[in-house]
Amino acid sequence: MAPKSFFLFFLALLLCNYTIKSQTIPKFTSILVFGDSTVDTGNNNYIFTLFKGNHPPYGKDYYNPIPTGRFSNGKLVPDILAFLLKLKKYGVPPYLQPNLMANDLKTGVCFASAGSGYDDLTSSISGVIPMRKQLEYFKEYLEKLKGYFGEKEAEKIVKGALVIVSSGSNDFIFNFYDIPTRRVEFNMNEYQDFLLDKLQFFVKELYELGCHKIIVSGLPPIGCLPIQMTAKSPLHRICLEKENSDSQFYNQKLEKLLPNLQSQLPGSKILYADIYTPIADLINNPQEYGFEEIKKGCCGTGLLEAGPLCTTKSPVCTDTSLYIFFDSIHPTESTYYHITEYLVKELLPKFSTVGSF
């Protein structure tokens, strides 16, 4: 099924499912996004780094189609959510995009940067925007909001925003597994706790700046990323049990941490997004969901290509909807639809209990 047809089919099914169950998607004033390449809609286009997705074949199934800086063939989860929530028609713009209009800012922007992580060392290795700098940009954004709409309205917009935080994978891949920088200082358990402390500080800062409705994503099955299988299981190409186990243990800690954090922040709703389970389900049962290729990406050989290695010279698969991964790290638009379905069904209704904006 062609990606655009799949998008319309997916939306029809999802909205129909909600009508049948008499459920409603809560209303949000805007969408604000922080994190790494899983949610970066193009901020890295405007900084000096090799970690860019603003060249073909990235974006081959996006509107137009054009490469926008998104590390996929099309839309990311925030783009699909923004459409469903009737906040954006053509995706969430990156904050660093020049000439953003007042309404762009009002309905939400993305601060994420591909290659980033909770650990500052991760961003220094990749030369991208660290999470703490994303917070600085957010503060700058708040001032712009106040300038356009006044302080009271700006506070209302931020308080009613759906905030997405998706990061962590790069920390483990760059600093622990493939480049063992942090292994000198920490064992796995200690490094997980180190990152969770950073995450906790980040969420508290968001809350102090007015954000009340926050989704924090866990880790995917890192051991099933094509690039990790290439590095450590090149012949058999099987998922790496140890790395997947590490992801699950980190996720368990995160899931326990967030309710405790929420209890410390009055009026907040902070939800854990389990992306491990839906992605693992796609990998373990691909044919149930219409996928065929689970061990390599659509770009090039699918074994190593990502970012600067996935280029116009790379051959591309004919049907991206059959692939779970677009390059050796990042999911296809089709995979992101399935993750979005989980978020809409399992998480968004829980925000209905939060005070109105």
Automatic annotation (TrEMBL):
Residues 1-22 form the signal peptide. One of its GO terms (molecular function) is hydrolase activity, acting on ester bonds. The keyword Phosphoprotein does not apply. It holds the Pfam family Lipase_GDSL. Keywords: Signal. InterPro entries: GDSL (IPR001087), GDSL_lipolytic_enzyme (IPR050592), SGNH_hydro_sf (IPR036514), SGNH_plant_lipase-like (IPR035669). Belongs to the 'GDSL' lipolytic enzyme family. This is GDSL esterase/lipase At1g58430-like. The lineage of its organism: Eukaryota, Viridiplantae, Streptophyta, Embryophyta, Tracheophyta.
